[in-house]
Design a protein that fits this description.
Keywords: Coiled coil
Structural class: mainly alpha
Number of domains: 2
Order of helices and strands: HHH
Helix content: over 70%
Strand content: under 5%
Distance between the termini: 79 Å
Largest sheet: none
């Protein structure tokens, strides 16, 4: 279902307000017509009563004639019925327009949510693609390092351990040598030689 354009919604809203005002005016007019009809009927009945009192014949008792509504009353009743029908039709149209406006608002909200979800989905897909690219780079580096390590000699790591042990022993002997030289210098009164460290 396509959402109506904004100008159509504004037009329907304006038309709805106009119909509400017209309905109020029609109700007031109908009330005035009903009051007028009631007054006319009351005056007509009153005039008939006076006429009957003046025209009484003691010797004759004619049957009372059935009062026929005047053309004016018939016209007013027809007009009242037409206005009632118009009022009902306008009320139904107003309810229909209100329901259409409410449905349009819901559709607009759902479309906004749908666009937001699509945007979030696109962002998530972009993050997933970036993560896959980084994973591919890590996998490539891992395979390259694995290949380089496999090309080394089987005793390579053992040789490294031996070199580390030899370096530790050399540092230990060097410290013992420095202690011995310092002790001899103190005994012989010779100043302890200081090694100048070159600064870069």
């Amino acid at each position: 279902m396509d959402m109506p354009p904004i100008h159509m919604c504004a037009f329907l809203n304006h038309e709805n307000e106009r119909l509400k005002t017209k309905i109020v005016n029609l109700k007031q007019h109908i009330g005035h017509l009903e009051k007028t009809i009631g007054e006319r009927n009351l005056n007509h009945i009153h005039s008939c009563s006076i006429s009957c009192q003046t025209d009484i014949d003691v010797r004759h008792h004619p049957k009372p004639a059935v009062e026929q509504p005047s053309d004016e009353i018939i016209r007013l009743r027809r007009l009242l019925k037409a206005q009632n029908d118009l009022l009902k039709r306008k009320e139904n149209e107003g309810v229909h327009d209100q329901q259409s406006s409410s449905s349009s608002g819901l559709i607009h909200d759902y479309e906004l949510r749908l666009r937001q979800c699509e945007k979030e989905k696109e962002q998530a897909e972009n993050r997933a693609i970036s993560a896959e690219k980084r994973m591919a780079k890590f996998q490539e580096r891992y395979e390259r390092m694995k290949k380089e390590i496999s090309a080394l000699d089987e005793n390579f790591f053992n040789d490294i351990e031996d070199i580390k042990f030899a370096l530790q022993q050399a540092n230990k002997l060097n410290r013992e040598y420095e202690k011995t030289v310092q002790m001899l210098s103190n005994r012989l009164g010779i100043p302890y030689p200081k090694v100048a460290v070159k600064k870069n």
